[in-house]
Amino acid sequence: MKIRLFEKQDAEKVAQLFHETVREINIRDYSSNQVEAWAPNNIYFRDWEKICSNRFTYVADDEGVIAGFGELESNGHIDCFYCRKNYQRCGVGSQIYQAIEAKALGLGVSHLITEASITAKPFFQRMGFSIVNEQKVTCRGEIFINYVMEKSLYKAA
User: Fold this and answer.
1) Percent of the chain beyond pLDDT 70?
2) Parallel/antiparallel/unpaired status of strands 111-117 and 77-83
3) Which of 138, 20, 32 shows the shortest CA–CA distance to 69?
4) How many CA atoms are closer than 13 Å to the CA of 9, on its beta-carbon side?
5) What are residue 134's DSSP bridge partners?
6) Is the separation of the CB atoms in 113 and 131 below 8 Å?
7) What strands, in cross-sheet order, belong to the sheet with 56-62?
8) Contact present, 114 and 103 (Cβ < 8 Å)
9) What is the Cα–Cα distance from 4 to 69, expressed in whole angstroms?
10) What are the angstrom distances between the C-alpha of 139 and each of 15, 16, 39?
11) Residue 16 belongs to what H/E stretch?
12) Are 87 and 67 in contact (CB under 8 A)?
């Protein structure tokens, strides 16, 4: 397994991973209407190429299979973070997260923030994030619960 930066040719695989993960994993915590709004069938690979190219997007590459990916914005915001269903709970997410945190430290970011789904909340808690608040967000007419979470990257002396 190699953790590397996103390349433009990864866009289709990343988009498919996102779609499949929301539809097959997040369905445990959200309704079918919610996951259909979150990951609609009309995925545009060019949109993913643009988004992932404008952030520090790390992918877990398992000999050509994208096992997971996570995106860091230069301000410390972690946006998308997904692992393929058969790669969950085996350290892939932790490896991607470690690359993101190392990059954030290199950028001089003092804390990370994310909006974690119900499904992702336990993972981010294991990575040392704390819940700031629960919130309701709307996507394509569906209301979702997620959690604003943050982690300080610098310990007080």
Assistant:
1) 96
2) parallel
3) 20
4) 3
5) 147
6) no
7) 2-5, 56-62, 65-72, 77-83, 111-117, 142-152, 130-139
8) no
9) 9
10) 18, 19, 10
11) helix 11-24
12) yes
pLDDT in tens, 35-45: 999 998 887 66
pLDDT digits (tens, 9 = 90+) for 117-139: 999 999 999 999 999 999 999 99
Confidence of residue 155 (pLDDT cuts 50, 70, 90): low
Tokens, residue 114: 């994310």
Structure tokens at 117: 């789904």
Please tell me the total number of residues recorded for the chain in this structure. 157
Q: State the chain's mean pLDDT as an integer.
A: 94
Distances (CA, A) of 26 to 19, 75, 121, 144, 157: 10, 27, 12, 12, 39
Query: For the segment 26-70, what is each residue's pLDDT rounded down to a tens digit?
Result: 999 999 999 999 998 887 667 888 889 999 999 999 999 999 999
Helix (H/G/I), strand (E/B), else coil: 1: coil
